[in-house]
């Protein structure tokens, strides 16, 4: 669910001192995008939001979440945004976030 090698790579790229801030920005931006998804009941901007979430997830190693967002983006691009199982995608994000927080210290030593 989490690509810890990617997480370590990001930490090394931004520096250990800045890493927690980068994580906080990521979580804040994802929350804002998820809020937009909830407000966009007609799924007008669904493809763009899925694209943003996919990229953010890849940056922080949320592997499973990024793949689901990629699938959602592809389906929306084909004109079928209403067929995307958004609750499943959001549950995967919640699970990934919980796993990340619970295991961050152990995997970044």
Explain this structure.
With 109 residues, this protein is mostly helical. It has one domain (4-107). 79% of the residues lie in helices and 0% in strands. The protein has five helices and no strands. The longest helix has 24 residues, at 16-39. It is elongated, with a radius of gyration of 14 Å.
Radius of gyration: 14 Å
Low-confidence stretches: none
State the share of residues found in helices, binned by percent.
Answer: over 70%
Through-space gap between termini: 19 Å
Helices, by number, come to 5
Largest sheet: none
Q: Looking at the structure, what is the overall shape?
A: elongated
Order of helices and strands: HHHHH
User: How many discrete domains?
Assistant: 1
Give a count of the beta strands, DSSP E runs of length 2 or more.
Answer: 0
- The amount of beta strand, in percent, is under 5%
Query: Whole-number average pLDDT?
Result: 96
Which quaternary structure do these chains form?
A: single chain
User: Structural class of the secondary structure composition?
Assistant: mainly alpha
Sequence-ordered SSE layout with sheet pairings:
Elements (H helix, E strand, L loop, with lengths): L3 H11 L1 H24 L6 H14 L3 H15 L8 H22 L2
Helix pairs in contact: 1-2, 2-3, 3-4, 4-5
